[in-house]
Write a structure and sequence with these properties.
By secondary structure, the protein is of the alpha+beta class. The chain contains 14 helices and twelve strands. Helix 4 crosses helix 12 (268-283) and helix 5 packs antiparallel against helix 10 (234-244). The longest helix is centred in the N-terminal third of the chain and has 17 residues, at 4-20. The chain is globular and about 70 Å long.
Length: 361
């Protein structure tokens, strides 16, 4: 791994490129309130972040990324439109792969703008593409918004759709829910026994934990209502599977998704957003006939993205994480904006990896 001084110099070079693209340099605190991140991601974030506590400020986390604090800053004080750049260290626990760094430098670029979101997507991607071109990396793209639109269009209950949307970023859990809601998987025996009981609360032992009797009763009622629903149709499940199987060059992926949209009209607006984005990428010199698109890309490590996603990888170094990644996160601005929202897209580059792969310093 390059020396810290070299990484800082490379970070400064990258940040200067983003400043030349109109970005305002900003800084965020290394310690972030854990409450915000827990609210966003639930307790799962604890497995990936370093947590500490403070007698006055409560539970804190070492900064796992920059996007959340930058969005908070913009939603509180930012004018529109806005562009930001930043650099600094982030901290991620790596319990499953000790070879990967748990502390490293990121340099980022974010655009907050209401007009022409597809043009903003293309601008961010093309800028990263040009910066990283000398490294000969493989570019991967996707669009989580297409799968989200497909789920929202299913003919089933809002509760089921909300559960599926909540677990889009957990593919195994998402698949388990699809199988259960479609009748492919049987109801767990313990749940079936519970619902078969006339009064599941009768004879219950002492209540332990945060949930009270009313919450538990409401949950049982919801489970009974769900059990009474008919399954999601096999044809709709097949269409979801067809979307998840799309893995083509971008031009072919678009045609494939347009074919699926004939039978699943709910994805048509998202598919046409993809078409406009590809037009914008082409106008910026990106060859979309050579640009990979994978409909399921970004579902394991990009939890706050809800539209376009991308990453750049060293094909001959599969042991390395992405050199750069990013995407669109409109819903995050709505969540952190307390009712206000603004379309936003951005990405980060790891200057240490750029140097390791023979990039500039």
């Amino acid at each position: 791994m390059p020396e810290r001084a070299a990484i800082r110099a490379e970070a400064a070079r990258l940040r200067a490129i983003f400043e030349a693209a109109g970005a305002l340099p900003v800084e965020t605190s290394v310690l972030q309130p854990a409450e915000v991140l827990l609210d966003l991601y639930g307790e799962d974030i604890r497995a990936r972040a370093y947590v500490t506590s403070d007698a006055l400020r409560g539970e804190q986390m070492l900064r796992p990324d920059f996007t959340v604090p930058v969005v908070q800053m913009h939603m509180e004080h930012g004018a529109e439109p806005a562009r930001y750049t930043y650099s600094g260290e982030v901290f991620r626990r790596q319990e499953e792969d000790a070879r990967r760094a748990n502390e490293y430098t990121q340099v980022g670029f974010e655009i907050f703008e209401r007009d022409a979101p597809e043009a903003a997507d293309a601008e961010v991607f093309a800028l990263f593409f040009d910066i990283l071109r000398p490294l000969g990396l493989r570019a991967a793209t996707g669009d989580i918004g297409i799968l989200m639109a497909a789920v929202a269009g299913l003919r089933t209950s809002d509760r089921r759709k909300a559960a599926l949307l909540r677990h889009i970023w957990r593919p195994r859990r998402f698949r388990a829910l699809i199988d259960r809601f479609s009748g492919r998987a049987p109801m767990p025996e313990a749940r079936a026994a519970l619902l078969a009981t006339t009064d599941p609360m009768a004879g219950a032992g002492p209540f332990i934990g945060l949930r009270g009797p009313d919450e538990i009763a409401a949950r049982i009622t919801a489970l009974r209502e769900d059990a009474a629903l008919g399954p999601i149709s096999a044809s709709e499940v097949a269409l979801i599977d067809a979307i998840l199987a799309v893995r083509e060059t971008s031009d072919n992926a678009l045609e494939n998704l347009r074919d699926i949209a004939v039978d699943l009209p709910a994805i048509q607006p998202a598919t046409e957003r993809l078409a406009r984005r590809l037009d914008e990428l082409g106008a910026r010199g990106i060859d979309i006939t050579a640009l990979d698109f994978e409909a399921s890309y970004g579902r394991t490590q990009m939890e706050y993205y809800d539209g376009f996603v991308f990453g750049f990888y060293a094909a001959e170094r599969p042991d390395l994480p992405p050199v750069a990644s990013g995407g669109r996160y409109d819903a995050l601005t709505r969540h952190l904006g307390r009712g206000r929202e603004i379309p936003a897209v951005g990405g980060v580059i790891r200057p240490g990896l750029v140097l390791s792969l023979g990039g500039r310093a």
